[in-house]
Amino acid sequence: YKYGITGLDNLGQLYRKMPKTVVVMVLAALSMVGIPPTPGFFSKWYLALGAVQAGYYVYVAVLVISSLLNAVYFFRLLERCQKETGWVEYRITIPEQLPERHVQLAELVKERYGLKVVKKTKAQIRKEKYGHKLFQLINETYCVLYGYSLLSPKQIDQYVDVYLSLVDMKMLTFVEDKEGNLIAAGISIPSLSEALQRCNGEIFPFGWWHLLKAMFWKKPDTLDLLLIGVRPDYQNRGVNSLLFVDLFQNYRKLGFKYAETNANLETNAKVQAMWVPFEKELHKRRWVFGKEI
User: Fold this and answer.
1) Where do runs of H (alpha helix) occur along 164-258?
2) pTM of the model
3) pLDDT tens per residue across all 293 residues of the chain
């Protein structure tokens, strides 16, 4: 409570701030489970021994069951003591038609802030150096998140050169203000998971064919939401609704049924809120554990 940590998923942060308290908590948990040679083990042992001698086997069963339940709870607790952070990924069912309130919200935001949805060709992106604007926006959006490293100009150049030719421009949407400044962007590609499985993760001799087919010709029914970025000063204003209205309409036209989100930080409430209106399932979870060296 002192440090504002009230959830099990944040106990790894507590270990760094209150290590002595966490150590005492660990010892108490081991005792509650009945791990020798803690006091809890001896108390449970003598209680069970007395119950057996008196013929009260039901009490022995109760002791065993309580220890197992404590183990399930407290070992989960101990596991999280070393946890740094975690990510979740959702599989979203793309609706046949976006809810009317999404469309109305997008129009309201567009009118209130003077924003517009923009589509670019690959030639325009190269000519206007729009790729640099895009990745600068990503830097601004993601720089406050755990584990993110700012992209250097050299890295941005490389990403633009390598990935621009692979992106279907129908699956890339930009939002600009009246002055033409980039406010938000959404980038997605067809999921390559099935193609990679078919080629066993190898490009040669024929793996490249499966990848190209998945990217441009016979698209799978699932896409990957690679990046969604909104400039910090426009966050919590509904700007993402402009992206969703444009992108999700294109997804259905292209034949996609499902969208898989990128890894979202468990503690990132803003990005978690984006998926609330959609039918979804949590299908992947990642944890990072930390230890002093």
Assistant:
1) 193-198, 207-212, 240-253
2) 0.72
3) 566 666 665 666 666 677 787 788 888 888 888 888 888 888 888 888 898 888 888 988 998 898 888 888 887 777 777 677 788 999 999 988 887 888 888 999 999 999 999 999 888 888 888 888 999 999 999 988 888 889 998 998 888 887 777 788 888 999 999 999 999 999 998 888 888 888 887 778 877 787 777 777 777 889 999 888 999 999 989 898 999 999 988 998 888 999 999 888 887 888 888 888 889 999 888 887 766 66
Strand partners, 222: 258
> What is the C-alpha separation between 123 and 181, in angstroms, rounded?
19
Alpha carbon of residue 19 to chain centroid: 28
Q: Which two tokens stand for residue 145?
A: 């998140």
Q: Please identify which residue in the block is written with the tokens 């990503």.
A: 138
* The residue to which tokens 């959830």 are assigned: 7
| Residue 12: φ, ψ to 5° | -60, -35
**Omega into 37 within 30° of 0, i.e. cis?**
yes
Give me the residues paired with residue 284 across strands.
Answer: 89
Closest CA to 184 of 175, 196, 193: 175
Amino acid occupying residue 162: V
Q: Where on the phi/psi map is residue 182: left (φ > 0), alpha (ψ -120 to 50), or beta?
A: beta
Structure tokens at 161: 């050169």
Alpha-carbon distance values, 244 to 171, 224, 265, 277 (Å): 11, 14, 20, 11
Kindly report the number of other CB atoms within 10 A of residue 14's CB atom.
Answer: 17
